[in-house]
Automatic annotation (TrEMBL):
The keyword Signal applies. This is Hemophore-related protein, Rv0203/Rv1174c family. Residues 1-36 form the signal peptide. Keywords: Signal. InterPro entries: MHB (IPR032407), MHB_sf (IPR038378), TAT_signal (IPR006311). It comes from the Bacteria.
Amino acid sequence: MTTRRPRARVTRALALAAAGLGTAAALSLPAATASAAPQDRVPGTDCTTAQVERAVTATSPEVAGYLDNPRVRGEFERIVLLPEPQRTEEVDRLLQRNPRIAALVQQYRPIVDQRVALIYATCDRY
């Protein structure tokens, strides 16, 4: 019998939380949403959306695969381009509508926050 290491559970939970949040958000959108241009600046950073996406891929590959879904990518881009207070409010609204995902995010909140901070701190390198 093999046991899963705690790190594997955390990684899986992060991926599920990110995927679930992105998918839930994408499903609540109309079919046609405007997509951010890769050169659009992300508020609160010196980075473009393309740089943030590359930072996600480099630092959180288990999450990055979900950005291959056009609806999830569109919602990700929409949220990441919001000014910080609105971004936080929007994520909170999405979590309120998705209690299962909210529970995962809450359970792993320090790790989620650490990953987000790492992405924003390093995105200018990509």
